[in-house]
Design goal:
The structure holds 2 protein chains of 2 kinds.
Chain A: H1 6-21, H2 29-49, E1 59-67, E2 72-78, H3 82-99, H4 108-127, H5 131-140, H6 142-152, H7 157-186, H8 191-196, H9 201-218, H10 227-234, H11 237-262, H12 264-290, H13 295-316, H14 319-350, H15 361-364, H16 366-379, H17 386-401, H18 403-428, H19 445-463, H20 466-482
Antiparallel strand pairs in A: 1-2
Chain B: H1 8-11, H2 13-27, H3 29-32, H4 37-56, E1 62-64, E2 69-71, H5 73-96, H6 104-123, H7 127-145, H8 152-183, H9 188-198, H10 204-221, H11 229-236, H12 239-264, H13 270-290, H14 297-317, H15 321-347, H16 361-364, H17 366-380, H18 386-400, H19 404-430, H20 443-461, H21 464-467
Antiparallel strand pairs in B: 1-2
Helix pairs in contact in B: 2-4, 2-6, 4-5, 4-6, 5-6, 5-12, 5-15, 5-20, 6-7, 6-12, 7-8, 7-12, 8-10, 8-11, 9-12, 10-12, 10-13, 11-14, 12-14, 12-15, 13-14, 13-19, 14-15, 14-18, 15-17, 15-18, 15-20, 17-19, 17-20, 18-19, 18-20
The chains are: A mainly alpha, B mainly alpha.
């Protein structure tokens, strides 16, 4: 084991980088951000090398009294469910710095500082072992994302930023009340202690609803998903990547950390509505995606459906479904982040996101199109690529739970193939759009290097999903063992 | 109960320091009117008062002057807070009074004397000293609000404030006299004992007295429905005076309310709970909703202060020691965040007076916009700022006492008010500037803002430093 508090260092190193940015010249901003995000990966390495996959317990546990009068502890620790998310967050931040390298030209210091603070919040959230710390990071991430969208975003950025902020704040304050009620009834906020506590079933229903408000907005579940298309579309590429790659997972992670273990009666009460909302999100999301004419908006809407698989998997409450859901989160983090990166890269050259302005891109940018092919196929759930495995697991569990859920999910998968292939067809195939003539659309070395890790991950996880699945076998078993 | 002794004077050392400095400044007023002596003297006196408050309480809690005041941890906490607020307001006044024509020396004397009143209020354990302290604050405040005599709006605000506040004082005095008539004593503990002994808790006359005293105090802290003077007074007064009213005065009023709740009328009085819950709910709701409509920064901060007083009172609704210490924490953090925000408003001069002035500030003065963002986040209650810790402890107290609906109302209102705080953030960060870059802030102002920012940040990251010390009487 390493001799430094791995989680605390990993969590706060990016923030230290953000502070450092303000003392450095704007010219060095991106270098400092790159160094800080790479260093974060380096210091987090013990998490993977020293982690014991055979245990469901929290590891690398740190605990310091924070507000002793109120029995509130600063607690950090990870289990197999949190590790892949921390890996995803640290990796995507580096890629975000890379993709913003030349794209961000105004107020660079603030931009990279916001990005790094967001990284701190993401890592901290997944490493928290008690609800208070969880909530602190949950709220903390809102501000940098709000600024990323509102300052460096597209034409309707202010509207999108404010909408994002109000939706998430409205959800999270109800969680705050739920948190405080839990705290006053159980006198602790530690996840492990809370899971053991007995809470009145009626109270659990209310508490579940309070937490649902926060989680549903973040996931986002139908019908509170409307902030997502606006936020994703208007955000700068790095912002979209963080939003799609990690932020959306926070809600589903909350279900796994709090709702399932702590509020089993609440889960039982809301089980059917949750399943129904999940399949509605899958199917409705897919149809909405089909109707989009803006590439970024299209990918944003596809997230609604993909996250529907996540909530569907979680609320099937069986091993395969929950593992599939977690894997789906990771896969969606990889694939939709990659798609947003692809869109961002070509947008920098063409300054249009309308699908009709593209066409025949394959003729001028073969490398770009090969990479895009992999990601589009992955998003469509093509066998051999990562999303296939997770969608398969979820659909299988859905069938096991209730036949029609499986049918709806399959319907969603089919529509997913349609919109991805159609998008691909309209952008890549056919005659070169006259508007694109004379543009250098092919990717540079830097951009290929940014997409390379994601391609490798998409293929590896498609071929050998056990690479990630092995982390959460035990914790999921423990999680479901606790639930009725 | 025995008479006062000379040794008792040692216990009021902070008050004596401030009073002494006030007298010196009055004596030499004409010679130092246009110099920086009054500011320096006030800041020094305030710093000495902080140190003295600290030193006086390194001993056991004790009462003085025949049980008229007490010097305990609670009083110490608020005395340090009041003195710190005084120092910061004095620093803000250097720039804030520029060109206002206010007589500097008298201005600082009034600040000092009002602070003495606050200190007296927070250590009072007797209705008489309690009333005297509050009146001293209010009398000085009338003049402070109207001290910029050349501005009609200032005079108007002072007259409005005077009329309403005198009425409130009369109500409170009436309540005190009824209580005295019923219980035969003016000391808080005596009143509590008498109420318990003679079963006066449900006595209509006693309830009326309680309501009158609570109304008077609600007026002093600007809680709804006794808030109507607040926006007018803040807007009419010069900005540092508004900052003073929002910080020290509120803290002292809350401290007094806390003592009355916990000691005199007892935590178990259902009538008192109803009054406090009502005040908290109304203040939070009305403040948060009306703040949305404001475009003048001082009025905006005034409505914001009304909502924040509501949150602070939520802690007291529990009637427990933990609740009282939650309110202490809230008051402490709120004083610094609001002083910081006022500091930025002052520093931006005419541009800072309206919302539109903040447009594009982040690209012109990123540092100023950054600290303003910090204060706005704290006022909203976002984690890692002191505002979140403060909200967490008071809402926890309310939920602990069973007021879950109040807690839900409070958090919903915090989202409503987030809209206006974030609108300022949007203006600062997401719009292009329309006015020229503001001048650099003077050192005094920067120091004051920096102190406020440090407390706001440290309070969010290491709240123990304050909460461990915020112990109920």
């Amino acid at each position: 084991m390493s001799d430094y508090p791995v989680l605390t260092v990993t969590t706060f190193l990016p923030m230290a980088g953000a502070v450092l940015l303000f003392f450095a010249g704007a010219r060095f901003a991106r270098w400092i951000a790159l160094a800080a995000s790479l260093a974060t990966i380096v210091v987090s390495l013990p998490l993977y090398t020293d982690f014991d996959k055979a245990s469901a317990a929290l590891q690398f546990v740190e605990s310091v009294d924070w507000l002793p009068d109120w029995n509130i502890v600063y607690g950090m620790g990870v289990d197999g469910i949190s590790i892949p998310f921390i890996a995803l967050a640290t990796l995507l931040t580096v890629l975000c710095v890379g993709v913003s390298w030349v794209a961000v030209k105004t107020r660079e210091r603030e931009f990279y500082a916001a990005l790094l603070v967001a990284e701190t919040a993401m890592i901290g959230l997944f490493a928290a072992t008690n609800l208070f710390v969880f909530f602190v990071f949950w709220e903390l991430i809102v501000i940098p994302i709000f600024l990323l969208i509102g300052v460096w975003g597209g034409p309707r950025r202010v509207f999108a930023a404010v909408k994002f902020l109000l939706f998430t704040l409205a959800g999270s304050v109800l969680m705050l009340v739920g948190l405080i009620v839990l705290y006053t009834t159980c006198d602790t906020l530690d996840f492990r202690e809370l899971a053991k506590a007995t809470i009145d079933p009626d109270a659990q229903v209310w508490l579940f609803a309070a937490f649902l408000a926060a989680f549903a907005v973040k996931v986002p579940m139908f019908p509170v998903h409307t902030w997502l298309p606006d936020a994703h579309t208007e955000a700068p590429t790095a912002g979209s990547v963080i939003l799609a790659g990690v932020l959306l997972k926070m809600g589903a992670y909350g279900f796994l950390r709090i709702s399932l273990p702590v509020l089993p009666d609440g889960v039982a009460f809301f089980l059917e509505p949750m399943l129904v909302l999940s399949v509605v999100a899958i199917v409705y999301g897919a149809y909405m995606t089909l109707a989009q004419t803006d590439i970024k908006r299209l990918i944003a809407y596809s997230s609604v459906g993909h996250m529907g698989f996540v909530t569907l998997g979680i609320f099937t409450l069986n091993q395969g479904g929950v593992e599939g859901a977690i894997l789906q989160m990771i896969n969606h983090g990889i694939v939709s982040a990659a798609l947003f990166l692809c869109v961002g890269m070509i947008y920098e050259r063409t300054h249009t996101r309308e699908i009709k302005d593209y066409g025949g891109v394959a003729k001028v940018a073969p490398i770009y199109c090969v990479l895009l092919t992999v990601f589009c196929l992955a998003a469509a759930g093509f066998p051999g690529l990562n999303s296939f495995v997770s969608e398969f697991l979820v659909v299988q569990s859905a069938f096991a739970t209730e036949g029609w859920l499986g049918v709806m999910a399959i319907w969603g998968v089919a529509l997913g193939t349609v919109y991805m292939v159609w998008l691909y067809y309209r952008v890549v195939m056919g005659k070169l759009n006259p508007g694109l003539e004379g543009m250098k659309l092919e990717l540079g070395v830097r951009e290929v290097a940014i997409l390379a890790p994601l391609v490798i991950l998409a293929v590896c996880l498609g071929v050998y999903p056990e690479l990630v699945l092995s982390y959460f076998h035990e914790p999921v078993k423990a999680l479901l063992g606790g639930a009725p | 109960m025995n008479g006062a002794t000379v040794a008792d004077l040692g216990l009021v050392l902070p008050e004596l320091i401030l009073t002494g400095m006030a007298l010196v400044l009055i004596l030499v007023a004409r010679r130092i009117q246009s110099t920086s002596v009054p500011v320096v003297a006030t800041v020094l006196a305030a710093a000495a008062a902080v140190a003295a408050s600290w030193w006086v309480l390194s001993k056991e809690p004790q009462s003085a002057f025949g049980g008229l005041i007490t010097v305990d941890g609670y009083a110490q906490f608020f005395k340090v807070l009041v003195a710190a607020a005084l120092a910061l307001v004095a620093l803000l006044s250097v720039k804030g009074l520029e060109g206002s024509g206010a007589p500097r020396s008298e201005y600082h004397v009034l600040l000092l004397l009002a602070s003495v009143g606050m200190m007296l209020t927070v250590s009072a354990v007797d209705m008489v000293t309690f009333y005297l302290g509050l009146e001293l604050i209010t009398l000085c405040s009338y003049i402070l609000v109207g001290i910029t005599v050349d501005r009609p709006s200032s005079n108007e605000a002072a007259i409005k404030y005077f009329l309403l506040a005198s009425f409130a004082s009369a109500l409170m005095l009436f309540g005190i006299s009824i209580t005295y008539g019923l219980t035969g004593t003016t000391s808080f503990s005596g009143v509590a004992a008498s109420i318990a002994e003679r079963g006066l808790a449900d006595d209509p006359l006693q309830l009326a007295a309680l309501a009158l005293i609570a109304a008077g105090l609600a007026f002093k802290i600007g809680a709804v429905p006794f808030h109507s003077w607040v926006p007018d007074a803040y807007q009419g007064a010069s900005t540092p005076v508004a900052a003073f009213l929002a910080s020290g005065s509120k803290a002292a009023g809350l401290a007094a309310l806390g003592r009355v709740v916990v000691i005199a009328f007892g935590p178990d009085s259902p009538a008192l709970s109803i009054i406090l819950v009502g005040l908290a709910a109304l203040s939070v709701a009305v403040g948060s909703v009306l703040v949305l409509a404001q475009t003048d920064m001082k009025r905006l901060l005034a409505y914001s202060s009304i909502a924040h007083v509501g949150y602070a009172v939520m802690g007291l609704t529990a009637g427990t020691d933990a609740g009282a210490s939650a309110t202490m924490t809230y008051a402490f953090f709120y004083v610094f965040m609001t002083l910081g925000a006022f500091g930025v408003v002052i520093g931006l001069g005419a541009r800072g007076a309206t919302l539109d002035g903040y447009q594009g500030l982040a690209s012109q003065r990123p540092g100023v916009a950054g600290v303003m963002l910090l204060f706005l986040l704290a006022l909203t209650g976002i984690p890692l700022t002191s505002g979140f810790v403060a909200k967490f402890v008071v809402i926890s107290s309310a939920v602990g006492a069973g007021y879950v609906v109040l807690a839900v109302l409070a958090v919903v209102c915090s989202v409503v008010s987030a809209f206006v705080y974030m609108r300022i953030a949007v203006l600062m960060y997401m719009r292009e500037p329309e006015s020229p870059t503001p001048a650099r802030f003077p050192v005094t102002l920067s120091v004051a803002i920096a102190i406020a920012a440090i407390v706001t940040l440290v309070g969010g990251v290491l709240p123990r430093l304050i909460t461990d010390w915020a112990v109920a009487p």
